[in-house]
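Following up on my earlier message about FE3-S4 cluster. Here are the inputs again, as you asked, copied directly from the submission form:
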Amino acid sequence: TYIVNDACIACKYTDCVEVCPVDCFYEGENMLVIHPDECIDCGVCEPECPAEAIKPDTEPGAEEWVDFNRKYAEKWPVIITKKDPLPNAEERDGEDGKLEKYFS
Ligand code: SF4
Ligand code: F3S
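Thanks, got it. Here's what our run produced:
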């Protein structure tokens, strides 16, 4: 599977949802997640994310993000249409510690 990590938080560009062939992105207040059981591993979303928040689960440290993505994908509504990024997306892009600072 692929996962969304904390680089998405406070940016939420949503370019990713436009390309996913199985509509497996789910939307929270300030980030999206991928449902790991629905993702078919096609990889087309990874290069679409301006924040580089989408990674394959084969990357180091991805395991905790798989659990995180599954947990919230089961709670949040699906998103299939691109929308405007969050208001401070450009300033927040690349910032460290986003999970602690902005996730809600
Ligand atoms: Fe969707 Fe493919 Fe990205 Fe998985 S890897 S979330 S199936 S676009
Ligand atoms: Fe987030 Fe990147 Fe999609 S910032 S909403 S994973 S395009």
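One observation from looking it over: Residues 1 and 77 are 19 Å apart (CA to CA). Hope that helps, and feel free to reply on this thread.
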